[in-house]
Structures are given as structure tokens and as C-alpha cells.
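Lecture 7, part 2: worked example. A protein chain together with zinc ion.
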Amino acid sequence: MKLFFTLLSIVACALSAAAVSPDRFDSALVLTFVNVVDVRSGTVDRNLTVVIKDGRISGIAKVGFIHPGRKIRVVNAAGKYLIPGLWDMHVHSAFLQSAWNENIIYPLYLANGITGIRDMGGDFALLKQRRDRIEKGQLLGPHLVIAGPFLNDSPADQQTLQVHTPDQGRQAVVAFKQQGADFIKILSSIPRDTYFAIADESRKQGIAFVGHLPDSVSVSEASKAGQRSIEHLSGVLLACSSKEEELRRHRQAALARKDFAAFSAAGLEAIRSYNPDKAASLFAELSRNNTWQVPTLVWLRAQANLDDPQMSAALPLKYVPAAVRAEWTPQLLAKDISPDQSSALKKVYARNLQLVADMRKAGVSFLAGSDGPDPYLVPGFSLHDELELLVQAGFTPQQALLAATYNPALFLMKADQYGSVEVGRRGDLVLLEANPLEDIRNTRKIAGVILGGQYLSRTDLDKLLAKVEAAAQAAAPAR
Ligand SMILES: [Zn+2]
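Predicted complex, written out as C-alpha cells:
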């Protein structure tokens, strides 16, 4: 009875709020008879009523009395499963001169249940502008957290700032924080002393630095220096090798003379000289220091199979801009890759797949990221591939789900807003036809997506996708 009245008062509040709410959203959305998935405990609470009011979850109760009213939308979600909105924690949604314009890429995320993305580098000004428009409701898209331009010791362009000296590194951190970056993104050619200067300045400025591991820095050093996330498992296999230092020198020398065959040979040697004790102490250190891993298995797989014509055959290519589609062929993507290199890449990928399960067991934290729209990675869809690969690697479906829901919220220090279906959290949710804890592929069976309390039904999502398909057919690279 108490619950009955609680819910009644929730609905009453929703009714009174309706008068002042903007037209853009239903002021209250009520999901009835829904099965709520608790991603942290891996359990399901069945037949609940969930009320989302003014963009936030305002009530969850066992029974509910719902007054139909103006601006109250009631969705009968009987038999369906509610999970927190998904986050893709490694994307590039605004590269310069990209055919992936905002009317293509952002609807693809939403249609796939992705209500938040971490953009790991692109046109900074454009990204900030889009982030603001999305939050104001002027552009339909997922929440964006964004890096400043890439920091790398390579020629500058619209999305890369060349940093060669420690001073340049520090100045870049200060400037990008001031200009509104959510974090600092580094790439692999940063010199050692510059890397540590960036780490130090990031700590002083209170901004996270993330990204690739520089070739001259070890995983253990990066973890101690406070790098918050390491992408693509870069440097991890090397760090587990009993010949780490020797192989690092080989790799650096190979890179300096652009000898990619020698570079991949060093990768294979790292696999052969894998040292379980060294690996165990490294994983313990990563866990202790909270150094998150974003393995982007789906990207590693794509990079290892650029020469495979089957790769694009399996993709929903109709959503890929025509100009990009034409480029996703082995002839173009793999033209500089030798058969030896290709075979080495495949072996490293297979080894990395085993590695993530061992790392997770040792307590290392993971985030799901796709690195789309890199070759063969269709935005939105590729995150579901990543979840499947995590399960293939040995994660349970719940652990894979965590990597795309609660863990991103924790990583972003926004667990009070995102990542779980609880009262007070943002109304960013995905309604599924089947239980994702039983089979991770069920995250693809999307019945509806809720973004800030706005309900997008299956019909709405299909309309979005049809528009994307038409736009992809016409899209040419901008500028
Ligand atoms: Zn990337």
C-alpha cells in the first residue's frame, strides 16, 4: 500500500511539472511491467514501474497506479528488459574532412542504444560546438565527453598538436583544459620527458590524461604517472615479456627506420617470452593504480584483418557513407601490409583476446570502446561487436555490460548521473526485447531508447535509420 501511494505521488508530481516543461520532451514517461537489469549485481527485478520525469528517473516501484494525462506517456514494457544507456568510450565522431557528418554518425549511436560517447580526438572546435548543441537539445545525439586535439610529436594539423618538448607539453595541457577539453589525449610518438611533463601538469591542473602508450614509456611507468586509460592494450604484451627492455629497444629502432616487419617480429617475440609472474605483478599494479584499459578488441580485430574481404561483407554497409564504403576494401586498406605482418597482427590479436580475461580476473578495470569509424567499424553497431568479443574473451555478459554502462560512469566520476537504473539517475536507458545477462547479443534487440527522458520507440529508431541510410548514400566528404 505504501508503494502504491509513493507512486501515486510521483505521478502527481509529474502532472504538476507538465505545465512548465518544454514541449521537446514528454514531461513524464512511465514504463510499466518492465524487468530492470541491475548491471552491478547481475540480477533482474521483474515487473516494475519506472517513472522518468524531467529527464531523470524519479520513481521505481513494484506496483503503480498511473493516471493518463497530458504529457504523460505510458509504455507497456511487459516482458522487456531495461538497462542503463550504453557508452562507447573510444570514438572519433568529428574528424576533419569526414563524410561521417552529424546527421549520420549521431543517430547511429542512438539507434544502437548508445547515449554517451567519449570522443578520443577530432576537430576540437566542432566537437565542442556539437557537445553544447546536444546538451541544449538542438542536435539529437549522445552525451559527448571530448579530448582536446591529439598530442603527438608529429606534424600539427586540425586535430593534432605537435608537442616535442616538456614545456610544449605543459602549455598544451593548460590551454586545452582552459578551452574546455574533458581530458588530454596522447599518442605514441611523444618523447619520454615530454610525456612525464604532461603527466605532471595534468595532475596539477586536475584533468585526466589518457590515450596510447608512448613507445619510450612502459605500462608500469604510465600507470605510476597516473595515465587514466590505456587504449588498444598498447604496450601491455610487451610489459608482460621477460625481454621487455630488449624488445622495446628493437621496436623503437624498427620504428625509427620504418621497418614494420621488424616491429611486428618484436610483437611475436613478446608473445613467446610472456612471463606469467611479471604479468601478474603488472596487472596488480594496474588494478591498484586504477589504470583503466580500453582494449578496443573490435579495432584490433579489424586492424589484423584489413586484408580479409569478408570483413566488410559482414557489416551494415548501407549506413556507411558511400565515399567511405568505397575505401573499405582490402585492395586499399591492406596495400602496404605484407603477408608476414598480417599473420603477426592476427597472432597478436588472438593473444590479446586471451590477455583481457586474465587481466580482468586480476582486478584490472575495463571500458568498452570501438574506435569507430575507423575502417570496418560502423559507429553504434561496432560497440555491440565489442561486447560480444569481450564475452568471447572470457567476460560474463554482466561483466561486458558493466564495461559499457556502470564502468564508464565510474571512470567519468559521474556514477551519480549515469550507469545504473536508479532513482535520481539521468533518464538515459535502453529497453531490450530479451535479457542481456543471458546472452550479450540481446543488447542488439532494441525495443526503445530513452535519452534524457525522451522515448524513441522502435518505429522512431527505424525512421532515424532510414534517414541515415539516405544520407549515407549522398554523403561526400565535407570540405
Ligand atoms: Zn582512436
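Residues 397 and 439 are 6 Å apart (CA to CA). The pocket of zinc ion is lined by residues 90, 92, 120, 371 (CB under 6 Å). Keep this in mind for problem set question 3.
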